[in-house]
Amino acid sequence: MIAVFAYVARRIMTTIPLLLVGTFIVYALTASVADPLAKLATCNQCDQAAFDRLIDLYDLDKPIPLRYVYWMRDAATGDMGQAPTEGSAEVFPLVMDRAINTARLAIPAFLIIATLAVALGVYSAVNQYSKSDYFVTGFSFVGISMPTFVFALLLQVIFAVWWQDWFDAKPFYVSQMHTGSISEVVRSHILPITTLVLVITAAESRFERASMLEVINSDYIRTARAKGLPRRRVVLKHGLRNAMIPLVTIWAIDFAALLGGSVVTETIFSWPGLGPLLLRAIFNGDLNLTMGIIMFISLLVIFFNLIADLVYGMLDPRIRYE
Amino acid sequence: MTTEPLLSVRDLTVSFDTDDGLVQAVNGVSFDVHPGETLAVVGESGSGKSVTAMATMRLLPRSARISGSITFDGRDLLSLSDREMRRIQGEDIAMIFQDPMTALNPVFTVGNQLAEAIRIHHPDVSKKAASERSIELLEIVGIPEPRIRVENYPHEFSGGMRQRAMIAMAIANQPKLLIADEPTTALDVTIQAQVIEVMRKAQEATGAAMILITHDLGLVAGVAERVQVMYGGRLFETGDTGTIYYRSRNPYTQGLMRSIPTFAKRTDERLSPIPGSPPSAINLPAGCSFRPRCEFAEAICRDEEPALRPLDPAGAHQSRCHFAEELPDFSQRTAEVAG
Amino acid sequence: MSEQPRPEEAHTGDPGLVTAEADAEPTTRALSDDVIVDEREGMTISTRSFGRQTWDRFRRHRLAMFAAALLVLLAISFWVAPMLSSYGFRDIDVAAMREGPSFRHPFGTDQIGRDLLVRTFHGGRFSLRIALVVALLTTFIGTVIGSLAGYFGGIVDTLLSQLINLFLIVPALVVLLVVGVRYGASPNGIAVILALLLWPAIARVVRGLFLQFRDQEFVLAARAAGARPPRIIVRHILPNTFGPIIVNATLLIGTAIILESTLSFLGVGVTPPTPTLGNLVNEAKGAIDSRPSTILIPGGFVVLIALCVNFLGDGLRDALDPTTRKG
């Protein structure tokens, strides 16, 4: 147990430099694009005092690395600053607010993806070269070849244009969660969730199929069969446990990515989540907001990778935390 | 042999449809195994010896085309349903595999896997009793501190210990037949003799018959009562161990003998590997499949495939060679060479 | 027992094994005589060359063959078709705005009267070109860095693995967005940005292969014979890694075309009026309820290209990398 804690502590320690380098790169790139003064430059009512205030507020007279240090120092104490292009809203509550909306899509999508990917992958592997295997494989090929934006737009065309009368797709708004009927909530969520599910399940089920195939052809599965175990038990007890091990890492990456906001899906379905907020922040050159979202995404990735490592250790007794 | 055979294989033929064509892995093989006896099946890789074992266990992939019959204890294994076959697998026939490093599931403890082997066939045995029995089994196969070791995962065992655990698992239900498929090939030479000894002890403890599959003819002495030699999916020679060792009537068997270092030394002959490599099972040469590598080959060997012929009235010694009777004795020949 | 004596055994000095060495010569001669006989009678395990086997395996993959043919057909039509039209991709026809499909404009026209057929095929041309450049560039960078990291280990390897971790922490799409807003103007610019983001994937594959081959006997033999590292890397190890590299490079074309079109769709890719398939979807998305075909056609081309590339990559994997085949 102590070894596990030591491992976690060490992992966090080794991640911090990476996090600093990563956020600095994004900071420097964004800062070199963003110019808070640009808007004022074309404004004839503004005076020098306004310029000076802005320069002072964003430390614009300082070199970028120094500004990054200031920003990081504030961020470390929990002060993520304000978002000038979002009506000077505080970044932290804004990001949290949008993160909740994103989670409304991410969590159900992830649960469906995880179940579906394992089910399809295992089924396909167990029935290798059968008709249903070809069908699943075909499905995943189409899924991985389909850019998210194409599939999202296709769903919109089908369900919100051609069959709008029948399906009656609804846009999402936050108070809908309290005031809207269940069917309305379902109709606002179903298209974006379907988009996320298709694109990610395609890749994951393919991965799980390959993983399961490798396991099925391994010696210990043959041993299990030679014991006289029923096929189902061989697959579900001896096979699945081993085939899940590599999938855990993939799950961590995908879940973190989902919770971090899907730019394309949320933008297309006008979802008030992190994705469109990030896109807007980058377009408008809102440094504090961009950095706030990046920081949130990075911490999610780090957190879930750590979880994945721990789960990995639980599933595979050969892993030691040294 | 007057007793009823335990296992009776008749005209077994196994082929696989592969991308490169039909692979004839086993070709018209017939043999018997009697209760309690040990039969060694010897041959190079690709000779069809493992496929024969897998067919008996019904562990071949579905793509395998199997014909002939395999009768075990009066029942034709090839016509049983999967469910009926599962009742025999691990209960009446158990198998020990080649590579102990990969044959045990890495994510379950050794004890767990042993107990599973017991409880799948005897669901009435309590978990506790199964666990006690597992410890007992580990003790039989000579694993020290079995009470602690039973909780270990396979990766905490050495190769030799894992193979002992595999043997323990195989004898868990007192099977009537043990099939050991190259059980020592993946092990260090020093461990091999120990594992063979453990298998003998396990066989003694259960009274099981055993099929020992190996490419190492040297391993067979003192373990098997009978030996059969396979080449290119066919039986090439079969007989009592002593007969095969000292009065082999087949050029291929004699070639195998000559490439055993200790044997070659004792008979004062040079160690001489058989030239060439085993035939591809896709496209067997016409006539005798060993002909291209055989020093005695003549025209007839190309034109006509020799039959497996009995060389004594009882038919205990059989050889597949046109010149079986004319072949010089193995020991005699080596004496000539030495002289 | 049937195995030929291994080379290291001949050097042990064990008297029992020296005899094996003494016998080696006649054995080899007998063997080579036999092989001639064997070949005539089709007895050797495989007489086909590696290239021939690869081709045979690939040919059996009908879908991959079909995908390859379709890809070539698409590429040719992207380059040739616009030449046959009298419209350029920038030509505005104010008399024919937002027109539906007609004989003059088979795909219709856009909101400022540009011919969509010409723009779509030009878009396909730009998108495909970007994807090819990305695949080549990424493979080059990834192979160089991956082989150095795999062969030498040490600092290059540490840097590479840290960089891979870095890309994990700061998602590629975010960096793409930020960089895209700033630098994403020309098709070549986008290609370079994508390559700079994608190379670690190839580097990781190549590194793994080099780690695997680095200590194998043929490399040790080359080293013992006095070959210098550059020669060992290029002449001895690299040829063994071609299969997986080609497969991954092919699949990269699909990844690149999806990423490029996504960026362009979000408005941070290639700057309009240069058409790419993603740009065309972006320009048309306002007309989703009135003229969905203007979205579905360029979007469909992206899917078609990516699908073909993935099937082709899959077929190549089966053909070039038989070890990864299942069943």
How would you describe what is shown here?
The complex is a heterotrimer of chains A (322), B (339) and C (327). With 322 residues, chain A is mostly helical. Helices cover 78% and strands 1% of the residues of chain A. Chain A has two domains: 2-90, no CATH class; 98-315, MetI-like fold (Orthogonal Bundle), CATH 1.10.3720. Chain A has helices at residues 2-33, 37-41, 48-57, 64-76, 91-126, 131-145, 148-162, 164-167, 176-179, 182-216, 219-226, 231-259, 263-268, 274-284, 287-315, and strands spanning 82-83, 89-90. Chain A has a two-stranded antiparallel sheet. In chain A, β1 (82-83) and β2 (89-90) form a beta hairpin. The longest helix of chain A is centred in the middle third of the chain and has 36 residues, at 91-126. The N and C termini of chain A lie close together (11 Å). The mean pLDDT of chain A is 86. Chain B is α/β, with parallel strands linked by helices. Chain B has helices spanning 49-57, 82-88, 100-103, 110-121, 127-140, 146-149, 159-170, 189-206, 241-246, 251-258, 261-266, 299-303, 330-338, and strands at residues 7-18, 21-33, 38-42, 64-72, 75-76, 93-96, 177-181, 209-214, 226-231, 234-240, 308-310, 318-320. Chain C is mostly helical and 327 residues long. In chain C, α5 (116-152) crosses α6 (154-169) and α11 (277-284) runs antiparallel to α12. Mean pLDDT of chain C is 74; it is low at 1-47. The interface between A and C is large, with 51 and 43 residues.
The CATH first-level class of the largest domain in chain B comes to Alpha Beta
Q: Give me the count of strands of chain B.
A: 12
Distance between the termini of chain A: 11 Å
Structural class of chain B: alpha/beta
Over all CA atoms, what is the radius of gyration of chain B? 21 Å
Low-confidence stretches of chain B: 333-339
- Write the element-wise H/E pattern of chain B from the N-terminal end onward: EEEHEEHEHHHHHEHEEEHHHHEEH
Helix content of chain A: over 70%
Cα radius of gyration of chain A in angstroms: 24 Å
> Number of DSSP helices of chain B?
13
Largest binding interface between chains: A-C, 51 and 43 residues
CATH topology of the largest domain in chain A, by name, is MetI-like fold
The CATH homologous superfamily of the largest domain in chain A is named: MetI-like
Query: What is the domain tally of chain A?
Result: 2
Percent of sequence in beta strands of chain B? 15-25%
Described by its quaternary structure, the protein is: heterotrimer
Strand order of the main beta sheet of chain B, please?
A: 6-7-8-3-9-10-12-11
Biggest sheet details of chain B: 8 strands, mixed
Give the total of domains of chain B: 2
